[in-house]
UniProtKB/TrEMBL annotation:
CDD domains for this protein: BDH (cd08187)
GO terms assigned for molecular function: alcohol dehydrogenase (NADP+) activity; butanol dehydrogenase (NAD+) activity; metal ion binding; methylglyoxal reductase (NADPH) (acetol producing) activity
UniProt KW keywords: Oxidoreductase
Domain Fe-containing alcohol dehydrogenase-like C-terminal: 189-387
Keyword Kinase tagged: no
Name of the protein: Iron-containing alcohol dehydrogenase
Pfam families per UniProt: ADH_Fe_C (PF25137), Fe-ADH (PF00465)
InterPro entries according to UniProt: ADH_Fe/GldA (IPR001670), ADH_Fe_C (IPR056798), ADH_Fe_CS (IPR018211), BDH-like (IPR044731)
Cross-referenced PANTHER family: ALCOHOL DEHYDROGENASE YQHD
């Protein structure tokens, strides 16, 4: 195990009915002028918008709204939010939605005190040195954005999708009320399960040794998602299933708690972001296609971890099989599970052909080779994309 520091400043408020405590939370942090950021209307349809507005009125806060955050949020929308914060003297940002909304809120938060263009942070041209405080009411279990300092933003005009991470971007609090996810449609429920499992994969497939606790934490999140996702699909208002999935999503990517002292990979996420940048597909749809192919491409780097994955997570019977056969059975079980819950298996399923493979591979390694389980150069990324066609 490597040495590490771990700090996560986000307060989590979890449980049925907690959505009605957002006013109280805002009052406790002294919010007076609030930018309310939300997406394309799901919160209006579900009634959550009215519940939040009522609480903001009760505490006498001024409310400024930024509606219409896109899935794969655009930097143009973020820039609008920054302008609003400046012109309306906003002192707190409240994101109500899924990962896209929370990510946009984070980008607005770090952009307000910066004199340059917020896109500089995504292109690693400037360092984040401060932010407006933000909080979140999560409506979709998937990204972990509710308890981490990362955001992923798209520059649609230039077909770029990039990420930043900063201690300043952690929400002060996040409200996790599983009942808010009852309305999440089947395809987004599937996406959420695939995304949180992928976050675990990025940390679990590591070359770091002597990390039994971290490995078991990873494996138990995977097993809990596997057990509960199909139940949530069958019974969308099953509280236990939604609550368990929500907790898994938050734990899977909250500043690295489950993988402290381990080297992480993140290559597949970097590749996927470039697919989304060009084709605007759901992040997890790309991950479902790419991850089993990444696994096939890299498993020989450390076959014992893939054997452990197959046996402990998927229950592959190791008797009479070589390590190679066990590892491959685990990878196949991953693919089969994704397909069973309805995730796509090939880029062709999303109408994506070979036209932009070079561009995606090149952009993935723009800053440096990606991954650590196996360092991937441009030609490796291209090979994985080709396997995914
Ligand atoms: O926009 P609205 O109308 O709210 O509808 C959304 C959206 O269409 C809908 N939705 C959300 N909650 C709902 C609901 N529909 C019904 N009932 C509800 N309760 O779901 C759709 C997708 O929402 P989105 O926020 O885009 O999904 P997700 O949470 O999966 O976020 C995806 C984004 O997060 C980034 C991805 O790249 C992508 O841009 N990621 C962020 C990460 C982070 N910050 O740490 C890590 C991830 O790996 C990921 O890259
Ligand atoms: Zn992800």
């Amino acid at each position: 195990m490597n040495s590490f520091r771990f700090y996560n400043p986000t307060q989590i408020i979890f449980g049925e009915g907690t959505a009605d405590t957002v006013g109280q939370q805002l009052a406790s942090v002294g919010a007076k002028s609030v930018l309310l950021i939300y997406g394309g209307g799901s919160i209006k349809k579900s009634g959550l918008y009215d519940r939040v507005i009522k609480q903001l009125q009760e505490i006498g806060a001024k409310v400024v709204e930024l509606p219409g955050v896109e899935p794969n949020p655009r930097v143009s929308t973020v820039r609008k939010g920054i302008e609003l914060c400046r012109s309306e003297n906003v002192d707190f940002i409240l994101a109500v939605g899924g990962g896209s909304v929370i990510d946009a809120a984070k980008a607005v938060a770090v952009g307000v005190p910066y004199e340059g263009d917020v896109w500089d942070f995504l292109m690693r041209k400037a360092e984040i040195r401060g932010a407006l405080p933000l909080g979140a009411v999560l409506t979709l279990s998937a990204t972990g954005s509710e308890m981490n300092g990362s955001a992923v933003i798209t520059d649609w005009e230039h077909q770029l999708k990039k990420a930043f991470g900063s201690i300043y971007a952690y929400p002060k609090f996040s409200i996790l009320d599983p009942t808010l996810t009852y309305t999440v449609p089947a395809d987004q429920t599937v996406n959420g399960a695939v995304d949180m499992m992928s976050h675990v994969f990025e940390q679990y497939f590591s070359l770091t040794t002597d990390t039994p606790l971290q490995e078991r934490l990873c494996e138990s999140i995977l097993q809990t998602v596997i057990e509960n996702a199909e139940l949530a699909l069958k019974e969308p208002t099953n509280y236990a299933a939604r609550a368990n999935i929500m907790l898994c999503g938050t734990y899977a990517l909250n500043g690295g708690m489950i993988s402290v002292g381990m080297q992480n990979d993140w290559a597949t996420h970097m590749i996927e972001h470039e697919v989304s940048a060009i084709y605007d597909i759901a992040h997890a749809a790309g991950l479902a296609i790419l991850f089993p192919n990444w696994m096939k491409y890299v498993y020989r780097e450390r076959i014992d971890r893939f054997v452990q994955f197959a046996v402990r997570v998927w229950g592959v019977d190791p008797n009479g099989k070589s390590d190679e056969e066990i590892a491959l059975a685990g990878i196949q079980a991953t693919r089969d599970y994704f397909s069973r819950i309805g995730a796509p298996a090939r880029l062709a399923d999303l109408g994506i052909g070979a036209e932009h493979l070079d561009q995606m591979a090149k952009e993935t390694v723009r800053f440096h080779p990606v991954g650590s389980f196996k360092k991937l150069a441009e030609q490796d990324v291209r090979a994985i994309l080709e396997m995914s066609l």
